[in-house]
Amino acid sequence: MTAVACLLLAATFTRPLERVVSMDPLLAQSVYDSHAIQLVYETPLEVDYEARPYRLVPGLCELPVVSADGLVYTFRLAPRDPMLLTASDVVRCLERLRDPSNASPGGWTMKDVASFEVRSDRTFEIRLRKRSHVFPWMMAMSSAAVVAKDGSGTGPYRLSRWRKNHEMVFDRNPSWHGWATRTDAFDSVRYLVVGDVSTQWLMFLRGEVDLLGDVSRDNWDAVVTAEGGLDPKLAADGVKLFSSANLQVRYIGLNMRDPVLGQNRKLRQALTCAFDFPTWRKFMNNRVDPSDGPVPRGVEGHLDEPHPYPFDLDRARRLLVEAGYPAGIDPQTGRRLVLTLSLGRPDCREEGELLASFFERIGVKLELSFSTWGAFMKAVDEGRVQLYVMGWVGDYPDAENFLQLFYSKNRSPGPNHSCYENPVFDQAFEAAMAADTAEVRNQHWRRCQEIVREDCPWIFTHFPKSYTIVRPSVKNYIPGDFPYGQEKNLRHEDAGN
Question: Residue 102's domain spans which residues?
């Protein structure tokens, strides 16, 4: 490798990232968009890079002052010299986000906002229609990022090159306030669109990428030992392995409007008991934790009690009898019960076939339907699926963000894709949102989880675990659920240091 190439690699942090659709915060709809957007544009608040449990810290603005009734948030822009953005710029972007005519995917974050008011160049107020303890987290999401009138941003990097479906390159923004005391940051950040995981792995071995954000099943044995540690050869080269639980839940959704599944709770419970998590975990190379409900462990309000319908084939068969399908046979037709599982990735056939084998044990036939992600989501939104495989990545670390997926007012095309409706759940959900204290709120959250676990509108498959490998030249990498724009915290050092 030439000296020039080595110098380029030494100054550039490179990682694979799936395709970014838009750099406009208004149009952000994926975690990949958020990665790029928050490199360039600042959000009013940020998620602390190091703190666990997560907490909010100042971003473009200082932490807000909240009125006694919880309805008025007063934000003041953080002191900057020169002041490149004003309170009017922030309000202009948030108003644009709130405007329903813009149909922003992130517009829901402003649903509780009644009004904005600019008080001065540095100060503005947000008045809510009702108390919302999670509202400050909305101010740290990419949809709330602030864009200057000329389209520029005040974030740590600037987009210098974008070859659609191939690469994005960001160079350091010399005007960003945080660089004043930093001499060890990467000069540029490079995102590469590399769809094949084997190619990603080879690029990592060749030193062409600095980080693999999730070790795939295909490369697992080459990276992780049977004991869960890093392969000795990689460790000898200075590579580091990071393992952490994710703020995610994966599940098989059941369409509650389906005439077979929606009105038959015993059938849903039987399917839940047929899900073989020990085999599933082995298939996933132990990269998953058992899921006992929709709220990940570590999130305040998580119901820390055993799931009432764990894997139990004998019980699944008994429940099938109670559901009216003894041995999986529909007595009205004399034929086996056939259900259809929709999957939004054509490359997950092995996963679907394993799930089908689970239900085969209790006499239920599971047919697989594959489609592109876009077609899959359209079918889910329109209720044209029976069962479907999906996951949810938390937008913020609060039980509300996961339990809203069962609130009847959020049914499809909202995030309640199973179209689950239960007035008792809704009552508990609304009581939690109106609670004055975290203690009372968490009591209601636990009640919500009890109701959902009994009704079984989902089969809770697992909580994912992230395994990330990083090259030795990258320092200060801390895995987290909110990595958007966080490359500014990385430090570069020569591999030999």
Answer: 42-144
Does residue 235 share a domain with residue 267?
Answer: no
Give residues with Cβ within 8 angstroms of 444, minimum separation 6: 428, 429, 431, 432, 435
Rounded Cα gap, residues 333 and 455, in angstroms: 27
Q: What is the C-alpha separation between 65 and 68, in angstroms, rounded?
A: 10
Only one residue has tokens 């405007």, namely 99
Helices (H) and strands (E) in the chain, counts: 15, 22
Q: Which helix (H) or strand (E) holds 464?
A: strand 458-470
Q: The pTM is what?
A: 0.85
Q: CA 195, CA 365: separation in Å to the nearest integer?
A: 33
Whether 63 and 209 map to the same domain: the answer is no
Q: Which two tokens stand for residue 139?
A: 């101010």
Residues 368-423 pLDDT 10s: 999 988 899 899 989 999 999 999 989 899 999 999 999 999 988 888 999 999 99
Q: How many domains does the chain have?
A: 3
DSSP annotation string for 96-163: HHH-GGG--TTGGGGTTEEEEEE-SSSEEEEEESS--TTHHHHTTSGGG----TTS---SSEEEEEEE
Judge if 58 and 139 occupy the same domain.
yes
Cα(187)–Cα(7) distance, rounded to whole angstroms?
Answer: 11
